[in-house]
Amino acid sequence: MRTLLAAALCLAATATGCGATVESARDARSPAVTLTNCGREVTYDKVPERVVTNDVGITELMFALGLEDRMAGFAMPDDKGDLSRVPWKDGYDKVPWLSKDQLTKENVLDARADLVVAGWNYGFREDGGFTPDVLDKLGIPSYVLTESCRNGRTKTSRGIMPPLDALYTDLTNLGRLFGVEERAAALVDGFKEQIAGVRAKAPKGAGRPSVFLYDSGRDTPFTSGRYAAPEQIITEAGGVNVMHGVADSWTTAGWETVVERDPDVIVICDYGDVSAERKKQFLLSYAPLRDVSAIRHRRIVALDYADLVESPRNPSAIARLGAYLWTVAGQG
């Protein structure tokens, strides 16, 4: 497993010191490519050369595929964690940071973008007039993050497949579009093998710890139902999402539900103006939670935002959470 994963990460890093021949991206004059994106076929007439991305997970999909040279910039807030220690630090150093908010038509046009990669609630939004249809009218193609595809289950839910399948789909699609299929396949194979190794060690049956994902909120917590990425990350790590019964993606829940389901572990999504430590202290001091098992035993662990949305960080997040849950399971 380590050999295959190392090869995948080596391909992702684009460093010349990996000792392997790096696959060249497809020539811009190559024939058009048709991809299935969010359930519809989309044809791209040429290989994009000035890609603009929105948010950290989407940006790192491009970096993992070694496509920094095809990028004109990215947009994301600067509260998404420390970027100096990620495997794709060189990409962040090389590619312009266009906006510390969200993409707009103006900064996309200023960057002379020939492809925008974003997602619903990860850049695309009706209220701000920034949608694939609007971009199409400007002559700019787009690719929608598969985790965010609209599905019609509710007014808010997103996603048309399990989150890890969405990750593999986007890596495969972008690999085809840019002519780096082998690099994409190596990443996908390495990620699958890494996750299979975690799954093999994970607690089984009644021994699986129950987990509540806490994103933010004091009066009403923001969390993950069964259609957002944390559901599968928790499951593959050997836990059970206490909000599995909520047929939605990122959504709100009542504290009374958290108390009733009595999670063994709370996972904090670390991002934003409120630090993970401050979120932890709030949870520990919030009186209605005092009898919850995770609070009584102080079983609170933080994962970065980019660990918990679709990104190439998902497999390592599963491994780290898995190691923590094995400890909890061992404590009975």
Element string (H = helix, E = strand): HEEEHEHEHEEHEHHEEHEEHEHHEHH
**Sheet with most strands:** 6 strands, parallel
Beta-strand portion reads 15-25%
Estimated radius of gyration: 20 Å
**Which quaternary structure do these chains form?**
single chain
Terminal residue distance: 29 Å
Helices, by number, come to: 13
* Unreliable residue stretches: 1-22
Overall pLDDT confidence: 90
The percent of residues in helical segments reads: 25-40%
Q: What is the number of strand segments?
A: 14
Structural class of the helices, strands and pairings?
alpha/beta
Shape: globular
Structural write-up:
α1 (2-13) crosses α7 (181-201) and α7 (181-201) packs parallel to α13 (314-330). The protein has helices at 2-13, 56-64, 89-94, 105-110, 132-137, 163-178, 181-201, 229-237, 255-261, 276-285, 293-296, 305-308, 314-330; strands at 33-37, 40-44, 51-54, 71-75, 97-99, 115-120, 123-124, 142-144, 210-214, 222-224, 240-241, 250-252, 265-270, 300-304. With 332 residues, the protein is α/β, with parallel strands linked by helices. Strands 3, 4, 5, 6, 7 and 8 form a 6-stranded parallel sheet that branches. Strands 11-9-13-14 form a 4-stranded parallel sheet, with helices on both faces. The radius of gyration is 20 Å and the shape is globular. Mean pLDDT is 90; it is low at 1-22. The protein has 13 helices and 14 strands. The longest helix is centred in the middle third of the chain and has 21 residues, at 181-201.
